[in-house]
Amino acid sequence: MAAAKRSLDGAEVKSSKKAKISHENHQKTKDASRPTAQKSERKAETFAGGTGQSSREAHAKQKTLTRERKAARPNYDAIARSMKIWERIRRKSHVPKEERTALVHELFEIITGRVKEFVFKHDCTRVVQCALKYATPEQRKQITAELKGSYRELAESKYAKFLIAKMVVGDNESRDAVINEFYGHAKRLIRHPEASWLVDDLYRTIATPQQKAILLREWYGPEFVVFRNTTSPTDDPVTADLSEILAKHPEKRGPVMNHLHEMTNGLVQKKATAFTILHDALLQYFLNCKGSETTDFLAMVQDDEEGDLAKNLAFTNSGSHLLALCLAHGSAKDRRAFLKPLKTHIKLLASDQYGHRVLLTAYDVIDDTVQVSKSVFSELLSKDADAEAREQELLAQVEHLTARIPLLYLLSPDAPKWLILDDTAAIIQEVRTIRKETSKKDPEKRRLELLGHVSQPLLDLITNHAQYLAQSTFGCQFITETIFGCGSNGDVNNALAAIANLVTEMPEDDEKRQEVEKIIASPAVGRMLKALVQGGRFEKATKSINLVDPPLKFDELLYSRLMAKGGDAEVIEWANGPNSWVIVAMLESEHFEAKDELANLLRKNSERLNKDNKGAAIVLQTIGSQPSTGVEKTSKKRQAGEDEDASSRKQKDKPTQKKRKA
After folding, report:
1. Has the keyword RNA-binding been applied to this entry (predicted)?
2. Which is nearest to 198 in space by CA: 210, 186, 214?
3. How far, in Å, CA of 270 to CA of 387, rounded?
4. Which residue, 224, 215, 148, 165, is CA-closest to 188?
């Protein structure tokens, strides 16, 4: 028992020692996790640099030292005051006009004579930019004159380059002064990380053709830098057309081509492929390539694994031209490589004023129409989307001035003049000349195969959205061209029935009925109905109708609907209404089976026809109720009127096209 007791007592002692040690360790941990006031004070002293100051006092002292250091710099008072003025006037909506005028005047008093000292400071350059924004023309010229001789240095500055961008806007004198200082340094500036984008923006947007030519010629070699032409009126116009230069000096071809290749290839290897001036240089180089140079160039474009070069080329004027030529000259393998990086940008290309040229070229030169369908049409027609979303996308494209071109281009062997611009037509003609040597498939066979992939979605769009499309001129043109173009590749009967239903079946609701009547009375719908009744496109050269095969027979469909709706009264109403030319087209049609029946109906009701309506007057002459001697004369007048309408429509479209070019 005694031994057991001693053992128990020993265990208790050990247990108590362990408990004591555990308690002490816990206390140490607790003390370490919760610093005492003394520790906090020591930490604050350490942060304050061991001076015994608090952190607040240390920060205040640091600010004071910073202020004193800045005050020791030149023009500190002027800079400080200008910054305060800038802080005030930059908030446009919070400053009255009179106060801003006074502050701008004070700001110019401060910076005059010191502009160079301000613009190279990252914070002060904003002050000069703000002053330039609200300056008068005289004050702007004052800043321009003071910075003369420093424009290249400003362009290379990380912050001052923005001042150059604002300085040249709307001021031709400033533009000329700035660009003149870039002469001789174009190659160096385009490689500079800060100046490159500024120089290219000036080249692309505001530089004159002469200025562009001088800058681009510097890429041809040192000789064109040293002996560059000036822009004085006494000099011959400067040209950057390399073909013209080499025609005058054929001995320079080797050095010029080598220098141009070295310059362009260097930028391509550095992935600096978005510059417009680079695209112009690449186009000039490719247009003058011979033999193996062409093959090497095509390989260079394909070697860009990420496809950035092709993507950037497609969206500029020279770049899209160059990419079209690459597609035309390339082999089947080359063409697949060129299209591959563009697959995810098809809709952007279609709606771009330059990018759509690449798609049109692909239609014209790629023999593998299945590949074009997968690469282009699957994205262009939104085939992966549901039916409603797909049709909404197509409606948006149909009403877009440029996006509709890739949809309508395949509907006829030669695109109508109102669809594409002259520049695009020239590129297409150039591509079609080249494809005679590089493509194997018959052009018409290729077109019809491609048309087979797009015809049904376009016809379904007309069937389901006839009223919406008929509301606009673009929509009516789309309906007419699609029905004419898809007649041999799809079933147009449903689309024609939808058009006939639109113009003959009126809604019961008064508001909706007025809306439909307004649509039917529009000139665009009248031209569309007349063209469909005629059954083909009017050929101006032969002054005849090129009938669609198989015949549409829309004249019979429309006439039967009119007779079913209101009989003789409905026909007479159309003959006296805004669509009287549709009735004239029926009477003049050679394939309208009910032509005699219609003529007898109109003769019987000739007294109800309104002679003041031009179309009704032609109807009277056609059915013989007026002397026949006037028929030929009136017919010529009518044709002249149609030509005048077409000319006026073309003139009406020109401002939009010019705006798109800009």
Report:
1. yes
2. 186
3. 44
4. 215
Express as a percent the part of the chain with pLDDT over 90: 59
Question: Token digits for 216?
Answer: 């681009």
State the residue for tokens 């989307």: 385
Q: Kindly report the number of other CB atoms within 10 A of residue 153's CB atom.
A: 15
3-state secondary structure of 627: coil
- How many angstroms separate the Cα of 317 from the Cα of each of 133, 344, 428? 32, 20, 14
CB 403 within 8 A of CB 350: yes
The answer to whether 160 and 120 have CB atoms below 8 angstroms apart is yes
Are 145 and 174 within 8 A, CB to CB? Answer: no
Strand, helix or coil for residue 56: helix
- Read off the pLDDT of residues 196-226 as tens digits, 9 standing for 90 and up: 999 999 999 999 999 999 999 999 999 888 7
Residue 27 has pLDDT above 80, yes or no: no
Where is pLDDT greater, at 348 or 37? Answer: 348
Question: So what's the pLDDT on residue 13?
Answer: 42
Coil, helix or strand for 340? Answer: helix
- Report the residue count for the chain: 662
Amino acid (one-letter) located at 420: I
Residue 122 and residue 162 in contact, taking contact as beta carbons nearer than 8 Å:
no
**pLDDT band for position 91 (50/70/90)?**
confident
Which of 504, 524, 619 has the alpha carbon at shortest distance from 566?
Answer: 504
What is the DSSP secondary structure assignment for residue 377, as one 8-state letter?
A: I
Res 346 pLDDT > 90 = yes
Confidence of residue 25 (pLDDT cuts 50, 70, 90): low
Sign, CA dihedral 435-437-439-440, equals positive
**Alpha-helical runs (H) found in 206-352:** 209-217, 222-226, 242-248, 253-269, 276-287, 292-302, 308-313, 317-329, 332-339, 346-351
Q: Which residues, in sequence order, are CB contacts of 106 under 8 Å at separation 6+?
A: 85
